Input
Amino acid sequence: MAARVSRKVISVADAAALAQAAADRVLARIAENGGRIAICLTGGSSPKALYELLATDAYRARIPWPRVHWFIGDERFVPSSDSRNNMAVAGATFLDRFAPAANIHPIPTDLVSPGDAAARYEDELKSFYGAASLDPARPLFDLVLMGVGPDGHTASLFPGYPAVDETARWVVGVPKANVEPFVPRISLTLPALASCREMLFEVAGESKRTILTRVLSGENLPASRARSNGETVFLVDAAALAETIRGG
Ligand code: 6PG
Output
């Protein structure tokens, strides 16, 4: 697998078209793998429409649920009963109804600290992967979903934080968030997120236009540095895409 291949930007009309295109890519990645499949979900508001679509008959019937495992790229250190818990949102929107419980892999948030939770999740990922170091020829995930925050963060890797430069750990505790909600976080690191066949960013709405322009221009931001060792795709809607990028 070639490292650091370039990013592809795919633009669609609006948020509804974006969710549909994302759901089609999820199904395409699933269809490519006849064995055990691993999908790393994301938090925030951007993936909610995708999750709702995956719960509809047209999509859920095409997912081989017993073979698909669901992880999360970052978590807020709040109980699973809290509406800000990323995996709880995915659970309530689609996972809990269709996925076998053993195939849902939340980041634990009932431990003493985010650091403890990170260490536990790293152990879980390593045990699932079956090795303690990542082999570029054998990606950890089939698909990693991502979002872009207003400060250019992705997962819970915030600009200027040491977590962005972590190369050894797969998962780290992030004691303080740079944006709301201001709760401690747990995040997969760039090398762990990169270990996938496809990294798929969903970016929609005018409020994302400025930061998306900065990310796509290659500014040194976590969302610019996050790349798959396979394919990296930015799925964006017209409102988020600046004229200058659209033209070029
Ligand atoms: C989180 C996320 C985070 C998110 C971006 C975009 O836990 O907050 O995983 O990285 O993807 O902040 O968030 P929105 O989709 O809400 O704009």
Notes: Residues 42-46, 74, 76, 86, 147-149, 153-156 surround 6-phosphogluconic acid (CB under 6 Å). Residues 25 and 200 are 9 Å apart (CA to CA).
